[in-house]
């Protein structure tokens, strides 16, 4: 009996995550736009995303957090029709190159057959998958920039 | 790896690839037993070390395979995992043992059964502690992004990619070990179910089961075992994928470029001398990119190489003569060992109905492994073999 109580209590205390990684993505409370966090090594100056510790270049162990650009170029993408077990299809993923010379892999918010290589995309925040409790996990995603989506909205 | 002394392949084995009710251990045992008999080994106490590549089937896979052959208790068995590179890595380690003089005769096996365990209609992915996997990354997507960029930069079409499947399935037509084989049209490939644009179903390797095995030995043992057609290992290279989170060209593949360069240097054999090549054609786009990465043609000329028929019979290098993964399917821990087994059989003129003519004297194999974020692949293993008879 006590063991069962302990188990259920433990589950209550430790719900699965609903926000992917506060070390990578900041969503400010004051309504200012979200941003990705880059990590600049205090020793050699290399900028990384995601955070790598120690720095793979010099093994430095202290970093300065740098807000990364919220817009980048979509280097390539994939419209996925058969995906991971448990993920709803279709969905779109892509590589986004930021001006800081960092490449981010992310899900793209938008329809299949709507993206193009080298088009501009911007950071957004949204669900990427369900957690073990069936709740959405929120993380960074990218979408067409606002001006582009408006244009597309008329045509597509 | 510099080979300190000469290493030879004594014998090889491979199962039929496809959907099997037999688990990995039965398949692995079939391939290993074949390879040992093919090496004129008729007792369980000849092999001195054994390596077994497997990715998904659990723990102590090698011992599970070898215990029923009476080899456990006599032979150290070491299990090897690096996703799709596991089987070739197992062979590499067997070669290493002989090359360093630690053993006179060793075996490398790759075995895998996916279909007994895996839900169909889902895609392979890196582990969930991988940042790309958490964000929906799958292997089909990784290759599709390469294909999409390739189309954007080079003006390639889905029809171009489909030609790889048509070619490889044709090579496999009479290969009893291959699963998907024979005539298929570009239209059928293009119109098959979309998996991840532009990769349609017939451009993706099947989720299959199977095993391959390779017995390697010293020059002395070639004599003692009475091997009539020894094949010399002139190069065996394993690399790990460099990490980078910066923009890079994904119409190339840094780890394949690096590994083939090392292999050419180690073996003293250049791409122009390679007669047959089994490469990691898990998806059509991969084979196309690797022509260039391995220097079979110049950068930017992969499509031309394919269209001119340079990668099939009568061309500069017959690529995927067994039919490749696009015909065999891809039991990920098995493929690397099975590629080598198949290459050896080609060099020994033991492929009735799918024998490359003239009989190849130089064979290369290539298998990458793992979709680890920040790398093109986590691992790459390549082998160069030369006829010595």
Q: TL;DR of this structure?
A:
The complex is a heterodimer of chains A (about 160) and B (about 400). Helix content of chain A is about 15%, strand content about 40%. Chain A has about 160 residues and is mostly beta strands.
- Average predicted confidence as pLDDT of chain B: 96
Our estimate of the beta-strand percent of chain A is 35-45%
* Helix segment tally of chain A: 2
Secondary-structure element order of chain B, N to C: EHEHEHEHHHHEEEHEHEHHEHHEE
H/E series of chain A, N to C?
A: HEEEEEEEEEH
Structural class of the helices, strands and pairings of chain B? alpha/beta
Structural class of chain A: mainly beta
What's the overall average pLDDT of chain A, rounded? 87
Could you tell me the radius of gyration of chain A in angstroms? 19 Å
The major beta sheet of chain A can be summarized as: 5 strands, mixed, barrel
If strands are numbered along the chain, what order do they take across the biggest sheet of chain A? 5-6-7-9-8
The parts of chain A where pLDDT drops under 50 for at least 5 residues are 150-156
Please outline the major beta sheet of chain B.
Answer: 10 strands, mixed
Question: What's the overall geometry of chain A?
Answer: globular
Radius of gyration of chain B: 19 Å
Count of distinct strands of chain B: 12
Biggest interface between protein chains, with counts per chain?
A-B, 35 and 34 residues
């Amino acid at each position: 009996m006590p063991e069962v109580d302990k188990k259920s209590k433990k589950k209550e205390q430790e719900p699965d995550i609903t926000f992917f990684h506060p070390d990578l993505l900041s969503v400010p409370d004051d309504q200012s736009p979200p941003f990705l966090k880059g990590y600049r090594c205090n020793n050699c100056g290399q900028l990384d995303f995601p955070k790598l510790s120690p720095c793979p270049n010099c093994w430095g162990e202290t970093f300065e957090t740098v807000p990364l650009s919220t817009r980048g170029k979509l280097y390539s993408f994939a419209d996925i029709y058969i995906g991971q077990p448990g993920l709803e299809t279709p969905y779109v993923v892509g590589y986004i190159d930021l001006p800081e010379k960092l490449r981010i892999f992310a899900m793209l918010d938008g329809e299949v057959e709507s993206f193009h290589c080298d088009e501009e995309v911007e950071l957004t925040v949204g669900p990427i998958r369900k957690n073990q409790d069936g709740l959405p996990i929120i993380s960074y995603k990218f979408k067409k920039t606002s001006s582009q989506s408006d244009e597309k909205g008329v045509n597509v | 790896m510099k080979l300190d002394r000469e290493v030879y392949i004594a014998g090889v084995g491979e199962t039929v690839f496809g959907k099997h009710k037999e688990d990995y251990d039965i398949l692995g045992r079939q391939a290993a037993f074949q390879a040992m008999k093919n090496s004129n080994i008729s007792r369980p106490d000849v092999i001195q070390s054994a390596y077994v590549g497997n990715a998904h089937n659990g723990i102590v896979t090698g011992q599970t395979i070898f215990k029923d052959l009476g080899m456990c208790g006599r032979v150290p068995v070491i299990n090897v995992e690096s996703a799709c590179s596991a089987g070739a890595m197992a062979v590499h380690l067997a070669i290493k043992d002989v090359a360093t003089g630690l053993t006179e005769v060793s075996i490398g096996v790759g075995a895998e059964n996916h279909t007994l365990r895996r839900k169909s209609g889902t895609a392979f992915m890196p582990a969930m502690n991988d940042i790309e996997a958490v964000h929906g990354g799958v292997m089909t997507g990784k290759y599709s992004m390469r294909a999409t960029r390739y189309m954007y930069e080079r003006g390639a079409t889905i029809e171009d990619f489909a030609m790889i499947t048509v070619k490889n399935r044709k090579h496999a037509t009479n290969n009893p070990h291959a699963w998907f084989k024979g005539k298929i049209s570009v239209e059928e490939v293009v119109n098959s179910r979309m998996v991840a644009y532009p990769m349609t179903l017939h451009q993706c390797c099947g989720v299959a089961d199977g095993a391959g095995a390779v017995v390697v030995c010293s020059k002395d043992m070639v004599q003692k075992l009475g091997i009539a057609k020894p094949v010399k290992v002139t190069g065996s290279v394993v690399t790990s994928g460099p990490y980078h989170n910066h923009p890079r060209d994904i119409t190339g593949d840094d780890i394949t470029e690096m590994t083939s360069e090392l292999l050419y240097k180690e073996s003293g054999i250049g791409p122009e001398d390679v007669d047959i090549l089994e490469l990691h054609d898990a998806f059509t786009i991969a084979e196309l990119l690797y022509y260039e990465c391995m220097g079979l043609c110049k950068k930017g000329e992969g499509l031309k190489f394919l269209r001119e028929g340079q990668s099939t019979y009568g061309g500069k290098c017959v690529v995927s003569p067994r039919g490749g993964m696009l015909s065999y399917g891809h039991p990920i821990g098995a493929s690397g060992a099975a590629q080598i087994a198949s290459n050896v059989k080609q060099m020994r003129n033991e492929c009735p109905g799918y024998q490359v003519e003239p009989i190849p004297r130089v064979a290369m194999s290539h298998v990458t492994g793992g979709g680890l974020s920040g790398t093109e692949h986590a691992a790459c293993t390549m082998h160069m073999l030369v006829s010595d008879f």
